[in-house]
Amino acid sequence: MKRGFLRKHYIGLSPTSSHLHTIAAPREARALAQLSAAPDITRVYSTDPRIVCADTRISNSPYFLYLPAVAGQAELVYIDYLENVKRVAKWPIWQQPAPKLPALPMGIEPTPGKGVGMFATRAIVAGELVCAERPTYAIRLGLKCAYDELDTGALQCNALRGLGESARTALLALKNSYSESDIDPIRGTLLTNVLPIDITEKPDKNPDNTFHGCFTTLSRANHSCRPNANYFFSFSTFHGQFWAMRDIAEGEEITISYAELTDSRAARQARLSSRFFFTCACETCTLSPLLQRESDARREGLARLIARIADESPRVPVKTLEEGLRWAEQEGLTVHYAQVLLYGSAIMLRYYGERMTSQWVDRARDAFRIVEGETSYNVKELDEVRETYRMVATGVVDLMALLCIAQRLA
Q1: Vertex 20, ends 17 and 22: CA angle to 5°?
Q2: What is the distance between the alpha carbons of residues 150 and 154, in angstroms, rounded to a whole number?
Q3: In the structure, how many helices (H) and strands (E) does the chain have?
Q4: Percentages helix, strand, coil for the chain, rounded to the nearest 5?
Q5: Residues 203, 220, 96: CA angle, nearest 5 degrees
Q6: What does the H/E/C string look like for 160-180?
Q7: Torsion sign across C-alpha atoms 94, 99, 103, 105
Q8: Running along the chain, 410 residues long, what does each successive block of 10 average in pLDDT?
Q9: What is the distance between the alpha carbons of residues 343 and 53, in angstroms, rounded to a whole number?
């Protein structure tokens, strides 16, 4: 499961977005001047696919992959080491037309105290796709590069320099939450707006394979500790997506989470203050002291439960799992609700029999369909469990197949 910030002039925008562009223009002009002034230490490695060495001064330099490959028209830059870049460049997805998306029910509007935000332009039902787009900037975390590239933002400047003008301008218009005296403004803008992305279909838990992406529309959604949308990265289409986790009324702000929602209010506020430099005033964070303590207790209890059942499948009483589901419902934590159902399905499979397992698998599938869509890896895994169950019932495979599935779910 997979966080964001500010403004754009593409899909789903209202007529007032041109006013936002006027406000941001001086900052964009400064950023463009910075791009022009950054030292060019790159070298073209190939033109089709368009791959560029980020720093000719060092061995094992990161490389930039631009898509599409036509110079001056790139809409995406992917930054990684050369062998990985060449592998990604061969993905068949780049040769396929971009998926046709429905008319998206959202727009970007000014919002008091937050700059701008994403708002529903009509009623949205739970499980509906709110917004989807490919990242404009994608990078492997922990890349080794020269110190001056980080200090001056040269790596980021040179990466953005190869993008098409419209893509580059849209990125530079995003909010920078960092002080320009503390961190290079272009690097600060990108750090402010990144969301996690995947480059494998099955989520990769290896911390060395962590990737971030920056989106020119998705990155404009504001935070809530009780969000109504879930950010999910679809590897099959290489799109970041927002899914409505509950019904959203026309005109209501669409929010996601920037923090770990099962942390206490104090821990969430500390994270948001240190990383994004704001104090959250959402409906959960402004509860009375008594209600806040009750909320913290539910969220922290949910965190303990998920940690207990996530890696293995201990024999947990059903009433304990149902209590965790109630906590998640009370706090509006729909993704955590789905997680309890997923891990609970593996427990049902091991200890509670076919009827209970079937019920929990169906509930988990429906929950993940709402927060991640039909193409989610979790939905596919749960469909495989259901199909395997059918095959066991008809004698096509034996019970060991189900036990293997239980291990994968856990």
Answers
A1: 120
A2: 7
A3: 13, 14
A4: 45, 15, 40
A5: 50
A6: HHCCCHHHHHHHHCCCCCCCC
A7: negative
A8: 31 33 54 68 94 92 90 89 96 81 87 91 96 95 78 85 93 90 87 93 82 96 97 93 97 96 97 93 97 98 96 90 98 97 91 89 96 93 81 59 58
A9: 44
* Order of all β-strands in the sheet with 115-120: 106-111, 115-120, 253-256, 222-223
Residue 111: closest CA among 207, 175, 169: 175
pLDDT for position 3? 33
Coil vs helix vs strand at 66: strand
Question: Which three-class secondary structure state does DSSP give residue 147?
Answer: helix
Is residue 70 within 8 A of residue 58, CB to CB? The reply is no
* Pairwise CA distance, residues 127 & 125, whole Å: 6
Look up residue 79 and give its two tokens.
């930054």
- For residue 216, which amino acid is it? T
User: Which of 283, 363, 399 minimizes the C-alpha distance to 331?
Assistant: 283
At 293, list the tokens: 């303590």
Cα(410)–Cα(406) distance, rounded to whole angstroms?
A: 6
